[in-house]
Amino acid sequence: MLDLRRLSILVTVADEGSFTAAAERLYMTQSAVSQQMALLERDAGLDLFRRVARGVELTAAGKLLTGRARGLLGESLAVEQELHRLAHGGREVRLAAFVSAGVELLPQTFRAFMARCPDSQLVVRDTSGEALSLLGNGEVDAVLMWDYDFEPLPPDHRFARIHLADDPMMVVLPARHPLAAQERVRLADLAADKWVTRAHRALYGQEPYEKMFRIAGFEPDIVFRAADYHILQGMVATGLGVSMAPRLSLYPHRSDVVVLPMTEPAISRAITVWTLPQMAEVSPVSDLIDALREAATDLIGERAGASGQASSGQS
Predict the structure, then answer these.
(1) Could you tell me the domains of the chain?
(2) 62-109 pLDDT tens trace
(3) What pTM value is reported for the model?
(4) In 10 A of CB 222, how many CB atoms?
């Protein structure tokens, strides 16, 4: 009988193209991955891999087994999630979300979700660590994530990636800044300013703000890296420097800063929810996805109006 855990490792090896890369993703040693794949080949009775210069390639048998394994693993996880739901009365939905979503996006989502599913319970946790592993391990039913348009998250064939809204980057200026009365600001026009940036992890090798500045064509003078977006706004308000931030993160909006749309380049991040393909159309998970989309769309629209009012108030 084929072991589901080994099949899961097989899928990761297929995605990564080598035992070493798969081991890093799975937090295993390379020798452990190699041993598990040797055992899987023994169980299958066929060679599943051929060694190449930079890793491994799947044989015909390996491609067949990998394709079937994806379906089996998805169905197995879906069954586990359905059983969990039945054990909690059939109406509990577990969501993992990035921390700043808890300021306004999640409260508005909760209201929209409860209007749709008044008998359901929404359980939320943050996505510290490897977010998709929570979904892959069956610990949550959906994961709320973001990624920048210039650095998208790699696809994961185990999950459905559902786009909710595009969250544009906005320029954040002190109220007395010379460009505060503009309708839009070109990022390069702020090249000579001092900068306050958000300190967060790099997605794939490069800190996102550094990548944005490089796209805009200049090296900034960064004088402060804020731990969160509230601190970022506070430092800008003092006149320490200028900044930029995603629109959804700028709540509440301070009255002593001006938030303006960015042009050249216009950068945004995608707000997405990830779930199992088998669960995306099943209530109450589908109702949660609809509530998330409604809340994200409403908030981005509202913030755009608020930003316009703030900039015109400074003119």
Answers:
(1) 4-70 (1.10.10.10), 82-164+270-299 (3.40.190.10), 166-269+303-313 (3.40.190.10)
(2) 999 998 888 887 777 767 766 666 665 557 889 999 888 888 999 999
(3) 0.72
(4) 16
